[in-house]
Amino acid sequence: MLRYRTVPVTPFQQNCSIVWCDETMCAAIVDPGGELPRLLDEVQRLGVRLEQIWVTHAHIDHAGAVGQLARERQLPVIGPHEGDRFWIEGLPQQGAMFGFPPAEPFTPTRWLHDGDTITLGHCTVQVRHCPGHTPGHVVFHSPEAKRAFVGDVLFAGSIGRTDFPGGDYQTLVDSITQRLWPLGDDVVFIPGHGPESSFGQERRSNPFVGGT
């Protein structure tokens, strides 16, 4: 079964998640935006073996420390979709703009596409391409654990911003209603910021996509 621990990082309080297979203790970090010493201390405390980096999208608070972590630990970078290539290349400029520590650009070991799967130990995670917040945004879904790591696509009571370059409101709404809702109302999602919720709860009450 896939387990996880969420650690908010950076001044933006981005929900970085450490995920692992509870049989093999193989682990991945989802969206290491910063504060690597804190994240690595948590990896050590959990007793898991870090093997992969997963990236939902390449905004600075989600990807700011990916390049450094990949280089220092020789880890493969999984994701996002190629649509976020320009965001990755612009990470140093993003960091300077928002006052983050210097960020290294990186080249993903594997670009992801809708319908792909990722293996972590004995766990298989499904990939959904969900553009709208960024063109290359992806979501990681574990059917067995009934959990989804959705980055900045969907929040408890809200949805992602669409006013950044490459963002589009209708595309984001379509991603949520066509790619996320079919995963099931009982799926709990871990957003990029703020508390967890479920797809069912958001279908009922979210003012942007409720009732869809």
From TrEMBL:
Lineage: superkingdom: Bacteria
Protein name: Uncharacterized protein
Keywords: Hydrolase, Metal-binding, Zinc
Any one GO molecular-function label of the UniProt entry: metal ion binding
Co-factor requirement: Zn(2+)
CDD domains from the UniProt entry: YcbL-like_MBL-fold
Pfam families in alphabetical order: Lactamase_B
